């Protein structure tokens, strides 16, 4: 093993339902992948070429707590399907894309909406609103052998028992195989890559003390406390 000038950072991992951890290489997030969410964010819901942004692998957090971040007073919840890849490559066909999936989970794309909005107005990148510490609460990843390849099923999120987001996986504009195929045209995908598949309408602000319960039918439930 080669020497390093500083201690090598640990590889970020997320839990699986099988007990062993899933090591994370990259995190790709698709934007505006549900028509109703595109509308609520002020955009045309018609199918347009997909676009992606990234979180950092160590933004994913399975602690069950979300620390309210600094420099923001408008932090939003976004419940999403997480897709974990066991292999990758370039120019993957839609027909073979699901062969590269290890499993699926429930996650949240927490967003400093005020900072994201400022960045949009100035034509700047979104990372300050999207890729902050512990901005990706996540539950266990379930292998395909247990949950199959979910392409329909209710996607919901409650805050302190009140329903905020309510949609269905079948409402995704770009389906999982299409996302994998499209990404592989621009990036070399690999084992350990994670895709966050977009959120339905109903995104809104959270406050300290709130309890978020995110559920995807057939995949699982994730409970996170805002601290």
TrEMBL record:
**GO terms, molecular function:** acetylpyruvate hydrolase activity; metal ion binding
Q: Which UniProt keywords apply?
A: Metal-binding
Q: Which InterPro entries match?
A: Fumarylacetoacetase-like_C, Fumarylacetoacetase_C_sf
Please name the Gene3D superfamilies in this protein's record: Fumarylacetoacetase-like, C-terminal domain
> Which residues belong to any copy of the Fumarylacetoacetase-like C-terminal domain?
27-227
Give the matching PANTHER family: ACYLPYRUVASE (PTHR11820), FLUTATHIONE S-TRANSFERASE (PTHR11820:SF90)
Protein name, UniProt field: Fumarylacetoacetase
């Amino acid at each position: 093993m080669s020497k390093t000038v500083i201690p090598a950072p640990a590889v970020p991992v997320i839990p699986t339902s099988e007990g062993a951890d899933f090591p994370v290489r990259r995190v790709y997030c698709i934007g505006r992948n549900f028509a109703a969410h595109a509308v609520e964010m002020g955009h045309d819901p018609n199918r347009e070429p997909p676009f992606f942004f990234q979180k950092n692998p160590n933004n994913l957090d399975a602690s069950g707590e979300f620390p309210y971040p600094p420099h923001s007073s408008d932090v939003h919840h976004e419940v999403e399907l997480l897709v974990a890849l066991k292999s990758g490559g370039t120019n993957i066909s839609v027909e073979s894309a699901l062969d590269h999936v290890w499993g699926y989970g429930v996650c949240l794309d927490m967003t400093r909406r005020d900072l994201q909005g400022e960045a949009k107005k100035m034509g700047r990148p979104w990372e300050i609103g999207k890729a902050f510490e512990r901005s990706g609460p996540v539950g266990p990843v379930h292998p395909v052998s247990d949950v199959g390849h979910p392409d329909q099923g209710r996607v919901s999120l409650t805050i302190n028992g009140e329903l905020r987001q309510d949609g269905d996986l079948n409402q995704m504009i770009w389906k999982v195989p299409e996302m994998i195929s499209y990404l592989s045209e621009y990036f070399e995908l690999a084992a350990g890559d994670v895709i966050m598949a977009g959120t339905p309408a109903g995104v809104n602000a959270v406050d300290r003390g709130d309890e978020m319960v995110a559920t995807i039918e057939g995949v699982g439930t994730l409970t996170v406390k805002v601290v």
